[in-house]
Amino acid sequence: MNIFSACLVLIVVAFSTTAEAKLYKWVDDKGVTRYGEVIPPEYANKSNVLLSDKGRLIKRTEEINNKERRPNEQDEAKNRIDNEAKLELSRKDKALLNTFSNEKEIDLARDRNLRQVESLISSIQSLRKGAQESLMNYQQEAADRKLAGRKLPASLQADITEGEDRLTKLQLDLVKAQEKAATVKANYETDKMRFRELNGSATK
User: Which of 170, 190, 168, 174 is nearest to 118 (CA)?
Assistant: First the structure.
């Protein structure tokens, strides 16, 4: 191939590329109409058109309206949550009916669970009583030493601090156990009421 032929090929390729070129048309934030082979990222989701080199419309892209889309997305999310809640309720209802055949069985299950929690409460109360007595003894010893003008040993002060901490922890454990007992009662009472609804009766 001679130089003339090579140049001719390059011209033809360049012409072909130009002939197939496409332009985008969009309006910027200032209302000015812009043209370019590439749309700036900040205008990618706004209204624009794709034109051929002869100005013929190839494709029109409408602006994505987030204000209109957001309520739809919120509605879809709410419907999805509602459906999941309904499925979960249906699952619990089936489990309730499969587990118990009457309200008396619900009461028996409640009492079994309560016995475990009440046993824990009793144990904590016994430990708390012992901790209170020990702390009182330490505190009385400290008071006697102070009254006699004697120095308080570091070990005695440590015993008092440890006793106070232990008593505080046992008190928190007791509150948690009592709350658990209340929760057990409330949950089984809710199950009983739902059981009545599912069986179409508000009374035994």
Answer: 174
Q: Structure pTM?
A: 0.55
Helices H, strands E: what count in the chain? 4, 4
Cα separations (Å) of 163 from 33, 67, 159, 166, 174?
A: 80, 62, 6, 5, 16
Edge-to-edge strand list for the sheet holding 48-52? 33-36, 22-27, 48-52, 57-61
Given a cut of 60, is residue 67 above it in pLDDT? no
Residue 57: beta bridge partners? 51
125: which 2 tokens?
């109360």
d(CA 84, CA 2): 75
- The ranges assigned to domains in the chain are 3-61, 65-99, 101-198
Write out the H or E segment, with its range, that includes residue 79: helix 66-99
Q: At what angle do helices 66-99 and 154-198 cross, to 10 degrees?
A: 90
SS3 36: strand
The pLDDT assigned to 127 comes to: 97
The single-letter DSSP state of residue 37 is S
Percent of the chain with pLDDT over 70: 81
